[in-house]
Every structure is written in structure tokens, then in C-alpha cells.
Amino acid sequence: MPAPSNTLLIEGSFAELVDELAQYIDTVCKSEAGSGVQSQIAPTLGEIREKEQAEEPADPASIQTQKDEVLKKVVGKAAALNTAPEKEFTAAYNLLIHLSNQSPSRDMFLNRICSYLSEQPVASSAQFGPSLALTTLTTIFNILPNNSESRYHVFMAILKVIRSTSNNAAFDALTPQLNTNVPKWVVAWDLDDEDARSLHVAIADVAAASGDHDMSYKYLLHGLETIPSDSASEAESRDLAKRTLVAALTNPTITDFNPLIDREAIQALRDSDSGLFDLLNIFASDDYAAYTEFLESNPLTSIDLPESAAEMLETKIRLLTIASLAAGATNRSLPYSTISDALQIPKEDVEMWMIDAIRAGLVEGKLSQLKQEFLVQRATYRVFGPKQWSEIQGRLMVWQRSLEGVLSLVKSEREKFEREGAGGDDMQQNGERRFGGYRGQGGRGGRNQNHQPREVDFVGGD
After folding, report:
1. Among its keywords, does the record have Ribonucleoprotein (predicted)?
2. In this predicted model, what pLDDT tens digit does every residue of 241-264 receive, in sequence order?
3. Which of 30, 238, 334, 428 could cross-link to 374 by cystine, CB 3.0-4.6 Å?
4. Count of the separate structural domains present in the chain
């Protein structure tokens, strides 16, 4: 998998190495003598050698032009390397990559090589062919500078191989880098919206093929974010919006639909896929009763949702209904009867559903069998608009008044403590003076030492 950039070191002059590679390609292709790529490039290689060995240096640009002509012919035949023996496959491709990387036109050559590795099977090894292709593609990715736009094409080829071969191990190895590097790569490669969208959708495809539907939805959503406002109604945008919406609805772990509601491409579905758009609004802010009413006139298959998702969708909307009930509960108390009516379930099943809602992270609280109520400690808002802001403002005002009361009480007690503390200090100082004065008169103070207040009063009378 892609790693920090490195260098591919291979010794030898261009003429020697390219002649060796051409000869190897002819061997793999079983070309007849004089008809292979080696014979095609021989005249040009001879001229390159003469110019490089001449006493007067030749124009470097003319030499490079001839080198590129040679490379075009060699790279054009390099697809034959996919039939090379497994033990020789990596070495042969590394030599081809090394030669291509020396050219100012390397991006053109490397892109062609990537197509060989991602679009054609490695015929020499059915078992390890995909791994050999991924290893070679990773080598190409890593020798390129971090800000090279060619890295984008190489990475897309890597994703294509992983998806086409269902290589879950390769995807698992790639996942940690996806989480940290994709935003950096988009910036470093200076991708426009279209290329960035293609990258995100390709990652989503690979994630879905590997069974990671949460990651797939995440990158579909990223792809949706790259659609400009003026393109929201285009066919391609609608297709992506619809796919993202279906992924959100059919994923049991997705309960927050606010990121979708705000997207203009999703809003454009109001005209092209009104049923699906209405269902989104129900899952975003409505309840189970609205969902059952919707299904009466809109079967799932009519809005391109599979019937197999029916049970999961019913479970999800019930859990979301619980979240709404808890968020709007007065005095933070939610009676079992209210839950039972809203979910259209027997009262004895309420606790099971509440436990499921807690596990889903939608609510927190305590179940009281004695009082037949759920004591709400926290609830998830499904939508956050003016009403929710108003509720939060009200709660903040209550907390503010409570804190003001606490601060007032603390201030009052502090002032009382300071007054009492100051009075006690004065009394102690006066007592010490009087007691000391009395003891200085004939030493009789010791007789009533255990009755100091009396002695203080007595001295004060002199």
C-alpha cells in the first residue's frame, strides 16, 4: 500500500538497461529474431550511444527526444510483462518504471503502465497476480513526489485492482491511510471538483465491495459535497445523490440525516425522485405513524428500495421516533403508554425497544418499571432548527438562573463568614490584652485560669 516516498535504484546506462528490457520482452512474447522490439529500437540506441560518446557533447534535448522515442516503443509492448514468470514479474516492471521515471514525459509512460496493471490480468499467476499488480502500483506511487498529480491516477488504479479482485486484506491495509491522507492528497494533487468526486466515489465503491458500508457512505457523502450548485440537477449529480440517499436509508447505523437534507443535489431529487425524497423527510424528522402512512401509497420497490430492507427500515424509524419522544418529553419523563402508542407496539415490548434505542446511542436514561416511565437523561435531536434552538435557549436560561442563585448564596455565606471571622479576631485580641493585664497584678490570675470569660469581665471593670 502507499507509503512514504522512496527511490528505485538500478545501475546501468539508459541504452544498456532499455536494450536488456527490450530483449526480455521479446523473449516473453516469443518474437522471432529481427521482428521484436529490440530490433526496432536498435538503430536509435546506436545513435544515442554515439552522441553520448562523442568528443563534443551533443545537444541533451535531442538525446532525450530519442530516448523518449525508444521508451514509447518499449512501453507500447510492455503489456507482455503480465505474462512474465511470477519470480521475474516484479524485477521486470521495476526496470520499466525506472526507465520511465527518467523521462520528462514520465507521467504519460507511467499512466500507460498503470493501465496494464489495473485493466489486464497477470496471466502468469492466477493466485498471486493481484498482489503482484498492487505491489508494482505501490512502487510507482511511492517513487512519485508527494505533490505529483500522477499519484492520483496511480491511486485510482490501485483502487480499481482492489475492487475487481475483492482483495479485503489489501483494503484493510489501505484503510488507515484513507482516514488520514485523503484530504491531504486532494489538496496536494490540486484536484478539481470532478476528480475529487471520482476519487471519493472510487473509495466508496471499494469500501462497499469489501463490506464496509459505513465508510462507503462516508465517502459518498464527501463526493456529494463536491457537486457545485449549478450542477445539482444534472443526471450524474442526481445519480450520486440517489445512491447516497439509498445508502443512508438502508444502513442500520445511519440515524443522522441532516448532512443530506442540506445538499442541493439531494434537494434536486424532490422533482426527479419525489417518493424517495419524501421518505428522507420522514426519517429526518417524522415518526412511525407517518412512515406507515407513506408505505400505503408508496411501496419500497416503487422508490428503488429493496423489499429486503423493509424490516430494517421499520426498526430504524421506530428508534428514531423514540429519540423524538425523548427529546420532547416534558419534565424529562416519558410514560410507557406514550411510547407504546407512538410505536404501535404492546406495552410489554416498550422496555426492549428502549434498550435498543440506548444501544443505538439515540437516548440515555433509566427505565422505571414501578412508575412505568423512562427517565430521560439525554436525547438526540433528529433535526436542529428554530424550535430546537428555542428549547436550548430556555434550558440555558433556567441553568443561568440556577447558577445565579448558587452564586448569590455563596456570596452571602462568604460575607457572613468574613464578618464573623473579623469579630472573632477582635475578641481574641481584646481577651489577650485583658488577660495579660490581669496576670501582671500580683500573679493571682492562675487561680481562675479555667474561667477565662469571668476573668476577662473582672479585668474590664478596673
Report:
1. no
2. 999 999 999 999 999 998 898 899
3. 334
4. 3
